[in-house]
Amino acid sequence: GESVGLHLPTLSVQEGDNSIINCAYSNSASDYFIWYKQESGKGPQFIIDIRSNMDKRQGQRVTVLLNKTVKHLSLQIAATQPGDSAVYFCAENGAGNMLTFGGGTRLMVKP
Amino acid sequence: GAGVSQSPSNKVTEKGKDVELRCDPISGHTALYWYRQSLGQGLEFLIYFQGNSAPDKSGLPSDRFSAERTGGSVSTLTIQRTQQEDSAVYLCASSLVTWPLSYGYTFGSGTRLTVV
User: Fold this and answer.
1) Which residues of chain B lie closer than 8 angstroms to A36, CB-CB?
2) Contact present, A99 and B101 (Cβ < 8 Å)
3) Is residue A26 less than 8 Å (CB to CB) from chain B?
4) Full DSSP string of B24-45
5) Residue A5, pLDDT above cutoff 60
6) Which helix (H) or strand (E) holds B24?
7) DSSP 8-class letter at A9
């Protein structure tokens, strides 16, 4: 279900390293998954999506991996840059027009 | 419009006063959602509108919170008798009515509400 009242876990990485952000989703019937990036003072923005008939999808510097067996989603960011510092949310679409959001992970990039 | 527009971007109000937050969704998006985000925390669902159907109000935290959507477009979230715990960023999002949701929701930049 939606995250309520959770303090965000933080991932700290060195600039240039790869980042991996993980998410466990709840609904085995979910058919569609999205990663959002939220920068300070802004609303969440779409990064990349994946449908349940795929296990990997690549974008520019980002890759999403889906493991339906264990209901796990990950976002990999290659060569992490200071501009990648943000909060990252996963979301799943189990039915209808509602998304269920994960609790979010704060990514901090050290120069 | 090109994106989801929310106003005001910032609102400071005194405890006990009523506030209205506005959301203009993307043209053609018939689904509209309100979320609340407290400092450093995740997204808390508040309410969902889809077309002319009755809204899903299951996330509203108390009867001081209400929302309406006029003409299937603009939405207003009203908080009556504001309390300090209402301080948060209120995010609005809209989407097409499809399943699965292609590209998910488009979010506005939010209204930062501070109750003093």
Assistant:
1) 104, 107
2) yes
3) no
4) E--TT--EEEEEEE-TTB--EE
5) no
6) strand B19-24
7) P
